[in-house]
Amino acid sequence: MKFDTLQQGISFYENYARVFGFDTHLYSTKKRKSDGKISLKYCVCNKEGFKETPRLQSNCKKKRPITRMGCNARITLKLINDQENYVIFSFHEGHTHPLNAPNSAHHTKQSRNLTLAHKKYIMDNSRANIGATKSYRLMKEHVGGYQNMAAFVTDFKNFQRDIRKYIRGKDAQMLIENFKRKQEMCSSFFFKYEVDDKQHLIRVFWADAIGRKNYTSFGDVVSLDTTFSMNEYCMVFAPFTGVDNSKSCVTFAAALLYREDTESFVWLFEAFMDAMSACDPNCIITDQDPAMKIAIERVFDSSRTRYRLCMWHIMKKVLEKVGPTLAQNEDFMSEFCNCVWSKYTEPEEFNEVGIQY
User: Fold this and answer.
1) Is 281 helix (H, G, I), strand (E, B) or coil?
2) Distance between CA 211 and CA 250 in Å, rounded?
3) How far is CA 13 from CA 77, 198, 332, in A?
4) DSSP 7-52
5) 285, 228, 218: which is closest to 257 by C-alpha?
6) Confidence category of residue 282, pLDDT binned at 50, 70, 90
7) Helix axes of 290-299 and 262-275: crossing angle, nearest 10 degrees
8) What does DSSP assign to residue 223?
9) What does the DSSP 8-state code read for residue 71?
10) 81-98 burial string, b = 16+ CB within 10 Å, else e?
11) Whole-number mean pLDDT of the chain?
12) Is there a contact between 112 and 65 (Cβ–Cβ < 8 Å)?
């Protein structure tokens, strides 16, 4: 059998291996001294030979299984001297290990291939914060089973790892470019950012057209929560939220901050005012952050905007402030919550509960 190129001969043996249920890999090569062309090429079974057993190390976390079993199955492709074709010079068929069953042929390396559809599916799910393992399980349900996947969960993880490695160090620039494209498509999209001396992104603020429209309708009370953070860069995620007429939460804007200091919060509130046409809210609710309090007094007009603390943060610290004895007293906690969450509670009545206990 003749092949026009060496790659055709290699592909022929790989297809043969896929049908009969084993994997292959390329072995040694011999070249002609006159012109350097490959004269002999060996393609062998992936279980060829024996792997040397490495010395056991104390820091070894996982022991790799032994895959080499001394298999002699192989094919040798030889270059014809007077032509540019290759022929099968030798062929050894026998294996020293059981072959894969037809229903498990998709486990072979030749059958494992991430198609463009797989890669797009992984990237689309990544935008929805869906990992590689869950993406693999979802696609398995779409195609009707693992036998129709043509890839392993490891292939999904490796592709996602390669994507993260490729964009590492460029993700901040990709974010800014994405905001610029959004602004070109919609002039109402607003964003602002700053970098440090090393051109590292330290803070970024953005507000889309829907968020700015919501602020004009429901922006009388604004809540700023900075309890969220990113795992990789330790930046603080700060969303500006409010409540609409249906008592549902609406988002006005959002930001990423590298530091929670006065300078960063002043920049954040100034960017928020620029996006909202310098319209002060009637009330702004935040946590008990001293730097944030100073920034609010500098940016917002105290005659128009009232500063209030978030009840969730206050109630979270109640157990620490009252001590372990009252914290375990169910009667006290029940009456305390009734006083706090009742809008009809007068200050005198609230103080009486504290004096009683």
Assistant:
1) coil
2) 8
3) 10, 53, 79
4) HHHHHHHHHHHHHHT--EEEEEEEE-TTT--EEEEEEEETTBS---
5) 228
6) very high
7) 40
8) E
9) B
10) eeeeebeeeeeeeebeee
11) 84
12) no
Q: What's the token pair of residue 285? A: 């609710």
User: Both tokens of residue 28?
Assistant: 């040694």
Average pLDDT over residues 268-287: 92
How much is the average pLDDT of 71-88?
84
β-pairing, 201-207 vs 228-229, is: unpaired
Helix, strand, coil % over all residues of the chain, rounded to 5: 40, 20, 35
Q: Tokens 């996602």 label which residue? A: 160
- Average pLDDT rounded to a whole number, residues 233-259: 91
- Nearest 5 degrees, angle CA 97-CA 49-CA 63? 80
Note whether 73 and 95 are within 8 A (CB): yes
Taking the whole predicted model, whether its pTM rises above 0.70 is answered as: no
Which residue reads 């090393």 in tokens?
198
309 touches 316 (CB < 8 A) = no
Please report which confidence band the pLDDT of residue 208 belongs to, taking 50, 70 and 90 as the band edges: very high
Q: What is the enclosing helix (H) or strand (E) of 91?
A: strand 86-92
Cβ-based neighbours of 262, under 8 Å, separated by 6 or more: 291, 294, 295
Choose the weakest-confidence range: 187-191, 229-233, 275-279, 287-291. Answer: 229-233
68 has a pLDDT exceeding 80: no
Residue 182 CA: distances (Å) to CA of 175, 193, 207, 210, 270:
11, 15, 11, 13, 22
Distance, C-alpha 91 to centroid of its chain: 48
